[in-house]
Amino acid sequence: MSYGMEIFDSAGNETFSTTDSTWTLLGVYTSNADTSTNHTGVPVMTTRIVTRTMVDQISGDDESYVHTFSLSGSTLTTTAPSASETVKTIFMVFGK
Amino acid sequence: MAHGLLVKNDDDEVLIDSDFKHYHFLGKFNHTSVTQIPDIMEGGIANAAQGSNSNKGMQNMPSKGEIYKYTVSVNGTTPPMCFVKPTSTGSSAPFTGIVLTKQVSTNWEIWVFQSTVTSASPVLYCFSPLSQISNSTSTTHGLKTFDSSGGVTFDSRFKPLRVVGGGNITSPTLAHTGSTGSGYTASLNVNASNVSTSFTSQSSASDLIYYCPSIASACQEHTFSESDSGFHSWTYYAWARGDVWWCFYRSGFRIASTSSFEVNYGVYARGHVYEHVVDSTNVFAGLVLGAITGGAYFAAAIAAAIAAGAFTSANVDGGNYLPYENSYRNNSANAFIISKASYYD
Description:
The structure holds 2 protein chains of 2 kinds.
Chain A lengths: L5 E3 L5 E4 L6 E8 L5 E4 L7 E7 L13 E5 L2 E5 L9 E7 L1
Antiparallel strand pairs in A: 1-2, 3-8, 4-7, 5-8, 6-7
Chain B lengths: L5 E3 L5 E4 L5 E7 L3 E3 L4 E3 L23 E7 L8 E5 L10 E9 L2 E8 L8 E7 L14 E3 L5 E4 L9 E5 L11 E2 L2 E2 L8 E4 L9 E4 L5 E16 L2 E21 L4 E19 L19 H11 L18 E3 L4 E7 L5
Parallel strand pairs in B: 5-20
Antiparallel strand pairs in B: 1-2, 3-10, 4-6, 6-9, 7-10, 8-9, 11-12, 13-22, 14-15, 16-20, 17-22, 18-19, 18-21, 19-20
């Protein structure tokens, strides 16, 4: 590395470096079952990804739809595809 | 940022921003138990005097995958990010995905579904914000950042998450394409084409771990019904039989190469429900199969099967065994993140 930053532990092992890439957690948002929700105040970064996790499901309690979503600016819009068969979904927004 | 620390790489990507919580290594977790969903089977007479007695079991049905259960000790409402270190990589590796994330007391319960049974087991590499990590360290070297409330957001002593690749991947629609069977022979194996996407090439596929919860599912069935009636040796006869064989599939993922990530399905649960009736006093109009599906009772069927180690229909009303018929759910883009096990071993 000719420039940048490296962080080492006490044994001299590198634990982080500016040659790395990572995703920073910008927020965690929960959309309850069967409910469409707009989450506001989502921090903005140049690149963001959204992961979805269905929570508390054995699989098949119902048809187990997860919410669909769109992320624009500081608003995460989540939509329940079914009014009765959509599961609780946790959205994690990461940025870098 | 009015004050604090902001570190970017030369691609202008944020590496450290003291305003935000960063994920740090929580630990490696091995499964506490492994199971399969017992077959959900229900039927009438096993050997009827009239009509076909063919395949009243699970002949020709595809093998099920297995479910590994993990208890991740992290106390907080933010679920841990659990990266899967698969049992193998490459074009023949099983597909593996997290199918359950559930907070239980001060732990999170994670279930990992693998499409085939193997002697080796997947290992989870889990990450969490520092506020949910109770690990301690005596080392005094490193870098630590705080947000405006004084909360620690980054601490190099706890192995911050380092990412080597990622993107989005979309599961196939149906798990099985083409004919689902003929007569009393079901054909429900996973034959959908794998979906692949690429990521930044790495030196060793076997060192890679990935984060990508399974959300897609498919449920497909093969139905067949037959009946006959008439006179034989001056005696009236009538019989009817109807069958439904079905599979419930969940999506899973694999590291196909040093630069390729793939998704497809595995058989998560399967079943066979039939009714075979012989009656010399009535002429059957044919069996009614329409009541077999229904969704709401699938949970009871699955839960009962898991609890008892075998399926019982005692709590399942009206033969509602399937979540839905010949369709799929959640077939939309799934974000995935790739890291290296060697960073944390």
